Amino acid sequence: MKTTLILGIVAIIVIVLAAVVLLVLPAVTTSTAISYLLDYQGYSFARLTSIAEDGSPQLEATSSSFAPGEDVYIVIYGISGFKTQDGMAKLNMDIRTTAGSDLNMPAINQDFEYPAPSGYIDNVYGYIVKERLQSGRYSITLALRDSVGGGVVTVTGDFTVS
């Protein structure tokens, strides 16, 4: 009899706790936060063809093979999923270049702002070579960060200088 009474009290406590959880749970799990997932459609290496009147480089997509002394660029295209602030996408680009397992050049880290009222950017480019590269095979890791929304995409690629 005593055991039945204790089991009955435990069952009532469990039912009350379950009811409290069901009442509180929707308030805890409901969220209005928007998740921004930075994304891109692809990338390519590029070489400099000319400098426009406004000082911007004119680039041509190319294979991943360059001549010694040639400037090396990487272009990321079809960028979306970022949060804008005052109609501007605020991005940070971090480029690290290695030759084999050795760090070849200091990291390049730069902040950019792009007009992006549609939530889409055709392309962004990074200048990889800050000093002349010797002949060899190189790897790059480029991290593009959304400074407003917090999203990050990482691109890795290899190119050769010969």
Tell me what the structure shows.
The chain is of the alpha+beta class and 162 residues long. It folds into two domains: 1-30; 42-161, Immunoglobulins (Immunoglobulin-like), CATH 2.60.40.10. The chain is 17% helix and 49% strand. It is built from one helix and eleven strands, in the order H-E-E-E-E-E-E-E-E-E-E-E. It has one helix spanning 2-29, and strands at residues 42-51, 57-62, 65-66, 73-80, 84-85, 88-99, 102-103, 108-115, 120-127, 136-146, 152-161. The strands form two sheets. Strands 3, 5, 6, 7, 8, 10 and 11 form a seven-stranded mixed beta sheet that branches. It has a four-stranded antiparallel beta sheet with strand order 2-1-4-9, with no helix packed on it. The N and C termini lie far apart (91 Å).
Structure in a nutshell:
By secondary structure, this protein is an alpha+beta fold. It has one helix spanning 2-29; strands at 42-51, 57-62, 65-66, 73-80, 84-85, 88-99, 102-103, 108-115, 120-127, 136-146, 152-161. The strands form two sheets. Strands 3, 5, 6, 7, 8, 10 and 11 form a seven-stranded mixed beta sheet that branches.
Q: From the 3D structure, determine the CATH topology of the largest domain.
A: Immunoglobulin-like
Specify the helix fraction band.
10-25%
**Quantity of strands, as a count:** 11
Largest sheet: 7 strands, mixed
Mean pLDDT: 78
- Quickly count the helices: 1
The helix/strand series, from N terminus to C terminus, equals HEEEEEEEEEEE
Number of discrete domains: 2
Shape: globular
**By helix and strand content, what is the structural category?**
alpha+beta
CATH architecture of the largest domain: Sandwich
According to CATH, the homologous superfamily of the largest domain is: Immunoglobulins
What's the N-to-C terminus distance?
91 Å
